[in-house]
Amino acid sequence: MSTPLIKEFNxxxxxxxxxxxxxxxxxxxKWYFPQLQKFKPLVGFKFQFDDNDAKYQKEWVVKKVIEGxxxxxxxxxxxxxxxxxxxxxxxxxxxxxRLKVTQTDLDSFPDYPHFKRDRFAWGWDNLLGQNLxxxxxxxxxx
Length: 142
Description:
InterPro entries: ASHA1/2-like_C, START-like_dom_sf. The chain is an alpha+beta fold. Helices cover about 25% and strands about 30% of the residues.
């Protein structure tokens, strides 16, 4: 078993606003993946994506939900070996929120550039460190 990839991000937003952004499909399209078609924060729910023409088609399932605190989902690709889990944990710090993302079992994926640990780390920096931060802190109606 490989060492999990763990990254933390801080937002100038209350935990309720961050939870809404990571569990609402309209918000998720803005910061996570625009191809997302359907999502519900319910254990067992299979994400639906419009990525039929993509080389790497996502097959994700919600694994854990603790309202306002934790969301976990599998991270796998159709036709490729490997299955990872992504866990978003939220921590309230006064009127701010710290988000810790943990991604496990990255070594279960094939040894291709698309599945490299550094690529996932870069991805979280962009998705959570830029996209989500911008959505939470720069927009008035988020």
